[in-house]
Sequence to fold (415 residues):
Amino acid sequence: MTSSELARYRDLLGDDGVEEHAALALAGAEFGVTLRPGDGAALAAVLAQLGASGRAALVRGGGSRVESGNALRGADVLLATDRLTGVLEFEAAEGVCLVAAGTTLDELRAIANAAGWEVPLDPPGARTTVGGTLAAAAIGPRALCHGLPRRAVLGLEVALASGERTRCGGRVVKNVTGFDMGKLYTGSFGALGVIESAWLRLHPLPQRRRCFEARVSDPEVALGSGLAASRRDAASVVAVRLPAPNAGAPTLCVEFAGDARGVDRDADWLCSEWRAEEAGVDLVDRVRELQTELPGEAGLRFRIAALPSRVPALHARLHAAGAETLAYPGLNVVYAGFRLPQREAEDAASAAFECAESAAAAAGGHAICERAPGWAKAGREMFGDVSAQAHLFAKLKQGFDPQGVLNPGLFAGGL
Ligand SMILES: Cc1cc2nc3c(=O)[nH]c(=O)nc-3n(C[C@H](O)[C@H](O)[C@H](O)COP(=O)(O)OP(=O)(O)OC[C@H]3O[C@@H](n4cnc5c(N)ncnc54)[C@H](O)[C@@H]3O)c2cc1C
Fold:
């Protein structure tokens, strides 16, 4: 970036909003400049300026998952949301709030919990932001009781690549007219616009939470018990940890939450049916960590959606290929981690992609590669087979960001 361009951004953002730093390698590109707009107007002005000068940006929230997706097709600056922070409105009686995109979930949680509300978003990561979570449609174990991130969104304020600021939905549950654009932006990985702020619907804090663990010798029985537990009224988290071959027995992890009587009733059922033992309240944190740690130091992690009846067969195929898995039976989601034997193990990476994608197809679902080293991304699609929707995605990208200012190449189909 030239010194006159940097001067222009300093005019727009002030000295605090432009940081020059040592080269930072991220998502297959190198960055020496981070732009930090302090409000929505500044964000929009930066986007307009980037477009006018033919530049592209990688949008960064907490940065915990900024390397997910396909390899970037070149970007010039990091566009950070860490100065777009704060709970802008909080309606304690209604359980709705307007929160700036760069606010961390931890900050929002502290404010909501103090007023008796729970934030229905629980992906891993202490620095995870509201904007990054919605852009990545990231889930955590409590998605079983909260639903997917789009369900929490009542409205969004989004700055488009053109520099136009837009708003969809709002504080009232039923004020969406026409297309529900909030649902489109949620999960679009910053390819269509930068989320400035979000109206979220909160959930009441449960009266009681209890956690349980059970060792189950057989994977199919463990997955069946997980599905049965997921259907209990108080089910808040149900995860089945299925270690790699010869690495131990499956573990069923359950959290029940809600009114005290309902929780205790379901706890009695679980203990008598599956000989589960009460676990510490940190069980859910451990499950959440496991979701991101798969497959350990180096390797590939896939998130696979499957029809509920086919999850045991899906697991059997993944297991036979040496994968370690974590299943959320009530969400029909299985995370599979494949360790790679050495750096640049191309054959092993190809075998893992082939296994995950064919097993997902046989299970009536879809595999997304959530984590892969840069070399393994080359020539591959991280979002699985998107050929049927590719032309629609391309038209959307063309309509929203024709110059490719935002996260170029990163989204499904290399958009
Ligand atoms: C070590 C670790 C690994 C993780 N791995 C995974 C994982 O593999 N899968 C998973 O589901 N969760 C994972 N998570 C959970 C992670 O918390 C979520 O993915 C969350 O979305 C990341 O939020 P963030 O603020 O860090 O976003 P970032 O990582 O900064 O960004 C995530 C994506 O959203 C875009 N983005 C960020 N902010 C905005 C915005 N305001 N508007 C538009 N686009 C934006 C970015 O360009 C990027 O594409 C991981 C967390 C940790 C700590």
Summary: The pocket of flavin-adenine dinucleotide is lined by residues 59-66, 68-69, 81, 101, 123-125, 127-129, 131-133, 135-136, 138, 189-190, 194-195, 292, 370-371, 407 (CB under 6 Å). The first strand starts at residue 18 and ends at 26.
